[in-house]
Each structure stands twice: as C-alpha cells, then as structure tokens.
C-alpha cells in the first residue's frame, strides 16, 4: 500500500502523515465565490447501466458466490472493494464517470452473507435496482465508512482482507482505527484481492465478445491504413490530427461503439518517439522519409481494444527498416512462444527483448499489459514486463507491444492483443500459447525479410493470411484488393 510506504519513508525525515476524513479541496471549492460546488457538474450523476449475461457470461450472483468461496478458503470475513474496475466487473455494471473507462464512482463490501454497493442511487434505474435487490444492498456513497465499521464490529474476531495494490488508504485507516478501539479484535490480512484474478481470467463468453470488439477495431484501423496509403499516393498533405480524426471516425461507425480506450496517439516524425504522445497536432504534417506511429483503441459493449501500427511515409531509410524489423522479430518471438504453467510476465518480457538487446537496443515500457472486458485498457494482475511476477493463465488477455524510440529520430511500436490459450501437451503437463485478437497488416516495406528465420517468416505469412480471411467478408472490393496486396506472402531473396 502506497500510504504505508510513504509513512515509513517520511518517518525517516521526521515527517508525520495525518489522515483526515474531510476533503479540503472540496471545502475550498465550495467556498469560492466565483465557482461554487453547485455550479460544477456532479461526477456521479451519469446513469449506471447493466450488462446482460450474453456479454458477461456470468451473473453477478454467480460471481459473488465465487468470491465468497475464495473468502471461505482464506478464512476472510469482510472484503472491502475500492477498485472501481473490480466493482464494475463484479456487479456487471458500467458507467461513465472516468474518461475512457466505463466505470463509476463507488465502493463495495462483501461479507460471508451480505453484499453492499455504495454509489449515488438516484442514477440507477428502478429496473436495475430491482435486479440488484436480489443479491446486494444499494446504499448512498457516503454510507461506506459507517457500514464498513458496522461490518467489522462483531463480538468475535473478524478477518478483513486488504490488497496492498488496490485498497485505499482511507479504508485501511478506518479499519486500523477501529482495530485499536476494539482491542485488536480485528485482524487485517494483506493479500491479493480475489476479484482481481477472477476479472483477469476471461470466461468463454467474455473471450468471444473480446474477439468481436477487436474485430471491429481491426477493421477500423485497416480502413484507416488504406485511406492513409491512398491519400499519400494522391499527393495529399496530411497532419497528425487528420489521422486521429479518421481512425476515430472509423471506430464510431462500428456498432455498439461507446468511447475511446484512451486518447489516440498519432505521432509523426520525432513525435513518434514520445511513447504516450496524446496530442496529435493539426499543424504537424506527415513528411516523406519519416515514421508515423498510430496507437489507438475503442471501447465497445463487447470489449476493450488497443493496437499499434508504425508505418513509413514515402520510402523508408535503411535504418528505419533495420529497427522496424528488429521490433517485429521481438513481437513475433513473444507471440509465437509456448510456455509452461507458472511462467511469469517477467520471463516472457526477456524473450521479447532478447533480439533488441543483441543490438544494444531497448525500450522503457513493458512488453505487454492486461486488458479488461469492456473495462480498463490497462488492468492487472497479469502483464509482460520486467516487474510482473504474476503467472499468465488461460483466458487472460494481454498486449504484446515491443518498441524502439530515439528522440529526434522517431519511434516504432508494434502491438496486438492476444488471449492466453492452453496448448496441446506432449507429456501431460500444462502449456500455454497466444491466440491473436488483432488482425491488422504490418508495414511490408519496413520488413527486411532476409533477417527473419524460417519459423518467424511462417508466423508472419500465416498471420497476414488470417488478416485477409477474417476481414475479407466485411470489406468492399477495392479494400479487399488493397488488403491482399498489403498481406501478400513474403519470401526470402534467392
């Protein structure tokens, strides 16, 4: 828990952190004559909506039963939930309080025989309230502290689970204060929150829905790449902003579009080296000899999407081809890797980076991150990075996105989303592999085919064949012709 770390570090400098219940910022804001609290929009006023089982694959009641089973195994009596993604997933509810993430301001508590959801009840329809009544008590957001104290104020010893990564300092302080007042009748257990792992391991319905969402996003980006190619071939001058507007327009044309997964990254030239460049400019044009990095995603009711392609404006330089091919090899090596049960994200991260390290190159971000099912674009506990010690398991969705960035020169990132699948085993042990959710062509003219091994080349050609197979039924004749050229099989020079 970050709060505990700060307490320890500040104590060394003789600084004491004093927790307070009242938000001083809100107090000052409400007393400012020219901007009172009443004039500002409420952050918890937008409607909350529910997702059907056809999208979630499991009812909220069934999820609660699994949570209580996990609590029973760990001898946990009270489970506070302060992570908004966990709450939205657990109750099959979504909102729009946070930009780009379909979640809502709330708290929740699960006990051995009760469940409580704290938010603004006025924004929940009567129909949803009636659905919730069967398995959860709906209370105002402000009732969370008192209810939590009531749940832990029992005549016998109460074990409360707090996840150091996902519990708020306020929740910890509430329980700690009550623990001291009750003469240590409360035991705080610091452990991984059971909902976090359940949310990460998508069920078959969630996986199919994620496939559907990423299919839509793949079509949108493929159409954008075709548009970009034609615009440049016709000699039209484009800006970063033009690219951003085009991809977002294609996303919105797909059914059940909700919002973007994040602010679109469309970086040209030197801006492509800025990893999280989220301000595409109408003043910066795409110039021949430069790279364009397009990292974008959309939220659909079916799921969350995120993918990146790097393209060459005009004819690429030898160095651009060299670095792009290196990043592509890193992506392929990770994507086609089979791995035994228990393999962590840190181990796969090293496999991806190996080819770059051989050339003394590296990138400063993780190779991959977990992705939610119509939730956050970045979610745990799984990921592929140097610091992730959590094993990948069947049903988890992760990005694979190695890159290379050089300030002033440009940047390269190649990203697909994959779902972890169990592979056929030769010796009875459990092995996993990756199945792609993203189907978008790579930039042919940036690939040095002679550097690819036979296995890597086969993976690339098979992937491109799958792109055509997946997208051909939903494209017009002209786009199909362009796509087949973009995905034509590559072979080594004789």
Q: What can you tell me about this protein's structure?
A:
This protein is an alpha+beta fold. The protein has three domains: 38 residues, no CATH class; 159 residues, Creatinase/prolidase N-terminal domain (Creatine Amidinohydrolase, Chain A, domain 1, 3-Layer(aba) Sandwich), CATH 3.40.350.10; 286 residues, Creatine Amidinohydrolase, CATH 3.90.230. The chain is 37% helix and 19% strand. It is built from 15 helices and 22 strands. The strands form eight sheets. Strands 2-4-5-6 form a four-stranded mixed sheet, with helices on both faces. Strands 15-22-21-18 form a four-stranded antiparallel sheet. Helix 7 packs across helix 8, helix 10 packs across helix 11 and helix 12 packs antiparallel against helix 13. The protein is globular and about 80 Å long. The protein starts with a helix and ends in an 8-residue tail after the last helix. The model has no long low-confidence stretch (mean pLDDT 93).
């Amino acid at each position: 828990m970050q709060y505990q770390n700060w307490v320890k570090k500040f104590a060394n400098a003789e600084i004491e952190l004093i927790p307070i219940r009242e938000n001083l910022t809100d107090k000052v804001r409400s007393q400012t004559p020219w901007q009172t609290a009443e004039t500002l929009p409420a952050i918890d006023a937008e409607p909350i909506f529910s997702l059907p089982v056809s999208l979630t694959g499991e009812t909220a009641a069934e999820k609660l039963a699994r949570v209580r089973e996990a609590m029973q195994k760990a001898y946990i009596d009270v489970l506070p939930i302060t992570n908004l993604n966990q709450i939205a997933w657990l109750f099959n509810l979504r909102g729009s309080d946070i930009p780009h993430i379909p979640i809502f301001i709330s708290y929740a508590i699960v006990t051995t025989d009760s469940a409580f959801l704290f938010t603004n009840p006025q924004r929940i329809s009567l129909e949803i309230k009636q659905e919730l009544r069967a398995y959860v008590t709906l209370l105002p957001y402000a009732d969370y502290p008192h209810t939590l104290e009531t749940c832990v104020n029992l005549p016998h010893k109460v074990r409360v689970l707090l996840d150091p990564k996902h519990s708020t300092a306020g929740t910890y302080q509430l329980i700690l204060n009550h623990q001291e007042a009750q003469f240590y009748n409360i035991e705080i257990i610091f452990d991984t929150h059971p909902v976090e792992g359940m949310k990460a391991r998508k069920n078959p319905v969630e996986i199919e829905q994620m496939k559907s969402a990423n299919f839509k996003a793949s079509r949108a980006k493929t159409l954008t790449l075709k548009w970009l190619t034609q615009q440049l071939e016709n000699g039209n001058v484009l800006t970063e902003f033009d690219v951003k507007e085009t991809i977002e327009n294609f996303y919105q044309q797909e059914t059940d579009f909700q919002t973007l997964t994040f602010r679109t990254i469309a970086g040209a030239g030197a801006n492509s080296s800025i990893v999280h460049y989220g301000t595409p400019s109408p003043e910066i044009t795409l110039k021949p000899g430069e790279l364009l990095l397009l990292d974008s995603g959309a939220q659909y009711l079916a799921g969350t999407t995120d993918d990146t392609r790097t393209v060459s404006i005009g004819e690429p330089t030898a160095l651009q081809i060299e670095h792009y091919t290196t990043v592509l090899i890193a992506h392929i090596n990770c994507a086609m890797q089979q791995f035994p049960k228990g393999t962590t994200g840190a181990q796969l991260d090293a496999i991806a980076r190996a080819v770059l390290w051989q050339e003394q190159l590296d990138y400063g971000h993780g190779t991959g991150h977990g992705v939610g099912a119509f939730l956050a674009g970045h979610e745990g506990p799984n990921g592929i990075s140097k610091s992730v010690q959590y094993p990948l398991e069947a049903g988890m969705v992760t990005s694979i996105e190695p890159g290379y960035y050089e300030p002033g020169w440009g940047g390269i990132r190649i990203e697909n989303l994959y779902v972890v699948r169990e592979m056929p085993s030769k010796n009875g042990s459990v092995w996993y592999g990756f199945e792609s959710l993203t189907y978008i062509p790579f930039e042919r003219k940036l690939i040095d085919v002679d550097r690819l091994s036979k296995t890597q080349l086969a993976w690339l050609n098979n992937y491109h064949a799958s792109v055509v197979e997946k997208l051909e039924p939903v494209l017009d004749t002209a786009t199909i012709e362009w796509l087949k050229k973009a995905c034509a099989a590559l072979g080594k020079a004789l």
